[in-house]
Amino acid sequence: MAGLGIGLIGTGYMGKCHALAWNSVSSVFGDVERPRLITLAEVNADLAATKAQELGFSTSTGHWQDLLENPAIDVISVTTPNAFHAEMAIAALEAGKHVWCEKPMAPALADAVVMRDAAAGSGKVAAMGYNYIQNPMIRRMKQLIDDGAIGAVNHVRVEMDEDFMADPSALFYWKSEASSGYGALDDFAVHPLSLLFTLFGHVEAVVADMGKPYATRPLKDGGTREVENHDIASVLLRLEGNISAVLMANRSAWGRKGRIALQIFGAAGSILFDQERMNEFEIYRTGEAGSEQGFARVLAAPAHRPYDRFIPAPGHGLGFNDLKIIECRELIGAIAGDRAHLIDFEQGLRIERSVHAMARSFTEQRWVEVSA
Q1: For residue 183, what are the β-bridge partners?
Q2: How many whole angstroms separate alpha carbon 40 and alpha carbon 332?
Q3: How many angstroms separate the CA atoms of 62 and 9, rounded?
Q4: Where are the alpha helices (DSSP H) in the chain?
Q5: Nearest to 75, CA basis, from 98, 55, 42
Q6: DSSP per residue over 298-317, as a string?
Q7: What number of CA atoms fall less than 13 Å from residue 250's CA on the CB side?
Q8: I need a labelling partner for 327 at 20 to 30 A (CA). Which of 32, 104, 153, 289 fits?
Q9: If you write DSSP's letter for every residue of 231-247 in order, what string do you get?
Q10: For the whole prediction, is pTM greater than 0.85?
Q11: Which residues contact residue 282 at a Cβ distance below 8 angstroms, ignoring those fewer than 6 apart?
């Protein structure tokens, strides 16, 4: 049986990540047919041809619409800037393709709703690129929480910080445009929101504040341009099960590179995790003897599947791209009809609604309920 035929739109950071996953998933897992990398699309034919050769695609094009007409393509990866996600994903679904779309769904909530509806009416798999939920450490934490290892969870704190927007002299680019979204909330905080959804369920209500550390940024040819969204967000949340939560996101936090820090507090213990140390977490259990109580560190190991598919020994560690390979395997499973550990467009829309509720809360300076 031939493997799935793959089309890829975009070859930036996440486009290359998708390509690496499609190239590696069969070798890593050994239980799926090797995908056929059919066509790569970029903004022009020359760039597309260069990237197709680098990333292993058979053909290339400067027009992404060409992928829609190709019957050899079963799945389209959408890895373009946020403003293009809706048009491309909807067109792919309407053309009868499965879709793997990077987050967020779209800057406008109405477009995200249309994406969800297109997916529901297509009969195809439509998955979001939330690869942090694939971490074997996150999966083990979920099992522990569900098994009551730390008792009923009552409070969660999550922080996401990076410093790619920290330099005030960095040139203006599309991530500071209003057309790309609210900034820290939908370009960024959707990742910790995906973890909250995976571990605890949906957000029910929010109150938010946002900050703009730099009002303008320099242009390449001189002058400046106004920054149109916010690089900092602070949010109080109420989660399902009456769990209180705090979310803080900052794209301009010097020294932070890939930090998603989770603190989970329950009636019988706590769990701590930091994405910058993604191959471990710490757990505190009140049931231990008083003289030995303290946080115990758990290192990633073959017992934390699917870590075992990559490395046969504990403590060696997975990386960001490995999580994308795991996500790719889950997507292939979903297409085959298996139960998959993914965030689909329906669930992704709930995350989008949370983000838009936060933005509305900031504008109206009040608590806002998150609609289903």
Answers
A1: 230
A2: 19
A3: 10
A4: 13-29, 45-55, 85-94, 109-122, 136-146, 184, 190-200, 320-335, 345-364
A5: 98
A6: EE--TTSTTGGGT-SSTTS-
A7: 19
A8: 153
A9: SEEEEEEEETTTEEEEE
A10: yes
A11: 271, 272, 273, 295, 296, 297, 298
Number of residues assigned to the chain: 372
C-beta neighbour count of 76 within 10 angstroms: 29
Structure tokens at 59: 């053909």
C-alpha to C-alpha distances, 166 to 162, 171, 174, 288, nearest whole angstrom: 8, 11, 15, 43
| Main-chain dihedrals φ then ψ at residue 367, nearest 5 degrees | -65, 140
Lookup: tokens for 341: 């550990």
Question: Which residues 6+ apart lie within 8 Å of 322 measured at CB?
Answer: 310
d(CA 5, CA 35): 6
Tens of pLDDT along 284-339? 999 876 777 899 999 999 999 999 999 999 999 999 999 999 999 999 999 999 99
Return the residue matching tokens 């303008």. Answer: 216
Q: Alpha-carbon dihedral of residues 186, 188, 194, 199, nearest 10 degrees?
A: -130
Distance CA 348, CA 198 (A): 11
- How far apart (Å, rounded) are the C-alpha atoms in residues 47 and 36? 21
